Amino acid sequence: MKRTFTVFLLLFGLSAFGQHAIALLEIPEASFSFHSRSGIGNQPVSADIIRGMWVVNASLNGKTGAFILDTGAPMLAVNRMPASKSDIVASGFSGKVEVGTTQVDQFNWSGINLRDFTALELDISHIEAVFGKELMGLIGFEVIRGNEIYFDYASSQIQVLDPNRNPLHRYFEPATTVPLTFDDHLPIVNLMIGGKSFKFGIDTGAGINLLNNRAVENIPQELLVKLPNESIQGLDQDVKECASYELTEAFLGKEKLEQVRFSGGDLTQLKALTGLELDGIIGFPLLRQLKFSINYPKETLYIWDRTDL
To answer: Where is 233: in which H helix or E strand?
Structure first.
């Protein structure tokens, strides 16, 4: 039987700057189908931002609870210990992670209604402990791929929008438009640093920004300020010490970014299992500076003027 390889980068930074998290889930060969899909909200959705992660309320099989909205996850993941072994081979930041599958009868969030599909089983109880909040799971790409999702960190609001016609584009013009590429489910942008282009995944489930150790060598050193090391804990519960940096200047399209903090990390395991080679992950410390939307069908990132909306 064909085995599906999965990589998790679900990390917590344990440092004087506070405890953060980053979630990236990769399933490049998985094939999960929905019996039915319908609905688009087009209305603001109130959410909590906890440790840099978006937490929203959704309904799973008739029960309502909290889910992390994670653009770094491929699909819906239900928070529970896997009931049995699966053919999914899962790896975390520094070790293996146990993953299973489960059948979902019905899932509803912000006008998105899904029925009769397979979801992952994944134990994220340690995140619950950090959040001090019960979590039902993660919402990922397969749930939101038909929509444009707008994120406003300042007001803690999300909008699930029609990707072709919606009020956002009807009444406003984006300040910057940035093309996206997708490696399976993960949205990827080019970040310009010192005149060079670097590939970064966009992960709203990331409480930190992550910079691949190999990318550090190619960034002009005058743009990097070395900070004290910090410790990172992965989904496998292992703790690793890593470097920490402040990137003084970068450009996302026409948007100038300044003084952005990154944690250093080794992403070679991600490349070894999936072939995906990234220079880093863009998470909360960078994304919170922006009002932005991801249009999945059009493969476009829009950055909006902070004073317009």
So the answer is: strand 224-233
Three-class secondary structure of residue 203 per DSSP? coil
CA separation for the pair 273, 282 (Å, rounded): 21
114-145 pLDDT per residue, tens: 999 999 898 889 889 888 999 999 999 999 99
State both tokens at 73.
């996850």
Given a contact cutoff of 8 angstroms between Cβ atoms, the answer to whether 74 and 3 are in contact is no
Q: For residues 285 and 15, give the distance between their C-alpha atoms in angstroms, rounded to a whole number.
A: 15
| Token output for 46 | 């109130």
In a 13 Å sphere around the CA of 40, the CA atoms on its Cβ side amount to 15
* Residue 83 Cα distances to 86, 101, 262, angstroms: 9, 8, 37
What is the distance of C-alpha 241 from the center of its chain?
22
Interatomic CA distance for residues 65 and 132, integer angstroms: 14
60, 145 contact by CB (below 8 A): no
Q: Which residues contact 272 (CB under 8 A, 6 or more apart)?
A: none
CB 279 within 8 A of CB 288: no
The pLDDT tens digits of the residues spanning 274-286 come to 677 899 999 999 9
> 237: how many CB neighbours lie within 10 A of its CB?
12
pLDDT in tens, 71-87: 988 889 999 998 876 66
Q: Is 278 exposed, middle or buried (0-12, 13-18, 19+ CB in 10 A)?
A: buried
DSSP 266-297: --HHHHHHH----SEEE-HHHHTT-EEEEETT
b/e string for 241-273 if b means 16 or more Cβ within 10 A?
ebbbbebbebbbbeeebeebbbbbbebeebeeb
